[in-house]
Amino acid sequence: MGLWSWFVRRRTAATAAGRPAFAAAIEPKEQEPLTPEQVADLKAAWAELAEAAKESTATGFHACSRGAKAWQEDPAAVRSVAALLRRVDAEDAATEGPTAK
Predict the structure, then answer these.
(1) Rounded CA separation 38/43 (Å)
(2) Which residues neighbour 86 within 8 Å (Cβ) at sequence distance 6 or greater?
(3) Rounded CA separation 48/50 (Å)
(4) What is the pLDDT of residues 35-50, one digit of tens each?
């Protein structure tokens, strides 16, 4: 049995049910709508991030989600990004003090 026939047989076995084996992992999940309090909290978190970004010397950042919910929709995650920007700027300021060249 060659390598090609091994892949063909594996793929056929995985799709025997009519859909790929990983389909359950990529299907979108229903999310419940945010309450007005949650929306207000999320807006406040985004305001904190906007303020931290203005104060920061960073020109951009990239973040990704680790769970089922996007980080952009999670106030705690948005506040964590804001705190990270502030902490990085504070560390940079400490290392670039008057003795730094």
Answers:
(1) 9
(2) 52, 55, 56
(3) 5
(4) 999 999 999 999 999 9
